[in-house]
Write a structure and sequence with these properties.
20% helix; alpha+beta; 5-stranded antiparallel sheet; 2 helices
Length: 113
């Protein structure tokens, strides 16, 4: 008997504090890319609140170093489907990463190299 796959809402996965499973995204060429979740936070851009996720690639990605992570904007469309898009605005990406670093410091974790 074949087991049916149950659709998993990406937003539920991102907001689940107990989730430690890798997140698999599909790139524009249809290739799967695996990430570990680092941090999720709301952040306001142009007077609009958005949700952002910082994900660390588990697969090699050209232009992304071994100890680097990517800031993604979380979008939910009218049908309720959640998608992630790499944040293209460097200023926004750096600001979201600064929120992450502030959270680490707040929890007593040193962010200096």
């Amino acid at each position: 008997m074949r087991e049916e796959l149950v659709p998993i809402d990406l937003l539920d996965v991102l907001l689940d504090p107990d989730n430690t499973d890798p997140i698999v995204l599909i790139d524009e060429d249809g290739n799967p890319l695996t990430f570990s979740q680092v941090f999720v936070t709301p952040y306001e851009v142009n007077d609009e609140k958005h949700l952002f996720a910082i994900l660390a690639p588990l697969d090699e990605i050209e232009g992304v170093g071994e100890m680097e992570a990517i800031v993604f904007r979380v979008d939910v469309d009218k049908e309720g489907e959640t998608t992630l898009h790499a944040e293209q605005d460097e200023k926004v990406a750096r600001a979201v990463f600064a929120v992450y670093e502030a959270s680490l410091r707040e929890h007593g974790i040193d962010t200096e190299d």
